[in-house]
Design a protein that fits this description.
Distance between the termini: 37 Å
CATH topology: Porin
Number of domains: 1
CATH class: Mainly Beta
Strand order of the largest sheet: 1-3-4-5-6-10-11-13
Helix content: under 10%
Oligomer: single chain
Radius of gyration: 19 Å
Strand content: over 45%
Number of strands: 13
Length: 227
């Protein structure tokens, strides 16, 4: 419950701080009172940030996952607006080492909301954004081969406690940074989501010691279209 209140506080703070700053900007794109819709999708280069052992981060590689969103954008003043996205986002990671590997693939229904600053016009518009996201875990899979018989295996990830994974949380949330450009109605966008709540917890073989937790992270390469 406290974490849910923290998420809402982040969203409110972004809107309260950003809107007065945006009043200083001017742009032909995203004018006050405008309402736009669109779709976008692309490639999620997903990764984990390990909280139980920072050394694991050096061996962590990307998992290549798809993503697809619909969005609505409202202009609050010239050059500034709020955008709400809704859709599917893939997360996970790949850990590959000389003595084995571990792959996780996770699927989320994600709801990002972010403040957006426009610096161009309708023909060529550079923009940047910052916000937060809330995501619901839909399912996933894992494949682990480390040479430890009691730890290796593969299967489905579901909410709760299963097999080699101690906890898979039903809800993930974090902060979001966005950079993009619009040429006409075509969108090219980079997103940098950073989880702030542990998505998975598990206990590796005793030789590694302790419990590992992970935060979802990575970056997204997106192409879209606004109507």
């Amino acid at each position: 419950m406290k974490k849910g209140r923290l998420f809402m506080a982040v969203v409110v703070a972004i809107i309260l701080v950003a809107e007065p700053l945006a009043a200083q900007e001017g742009s032909a794109s995203g004018q006050a009172g405008s309402l736009e819709f669109g779709v976008k999708g692309g490639l999620s280069l997903a990764s984990f940030f390990w909280t139980g052992d920072l050394g694991w981060n050096s061996s962590t590689m990307f998992a290549f996952m798809p993503e697809a969103f619909a969005f609505a954008r409202v202009g609050l003043s010239d050059g500034f607006g709020i955008q709400l996205d809704a859709g599917y986002h893939g997360n996970g990671c790949s850990v590959d080492a000389s003595d084995g590997y571990a792959h996780w693939y996770m699927h989320y229904l994600e709801l990002p909301i972010w403040a957006r600053w426009n610096t161009g016009d309708d023909d060529f518009n550079l923009y940047a954004g910052v916000g937060a996201y809330l995501a619901w875990f839909l399912g996933g899979s894992y494949d682990i081969a480390t040479g430890y018989a009691d730890f290796d295996g593969s299967g489905s990830l579901t909410q709760g406690t299963i097999g080699q994974v101690d906890v898979v949380r039903a809800m993930d949330y974090g902060v979001l940074f966005v950079l993009g450009v619009e040429t006409g109605r075509t969108i090219y966008e980079l997103r940098f989501p950073i989880g702030i709540v542990t998505a998975i917890e598990f206990t590796p073989p005793l030789d590694f010691g302790g419990t590992r937790g992970v935060l979802n992270s990575g970056f997204d390469i997106i192409v879209g279209y606004r109507f």
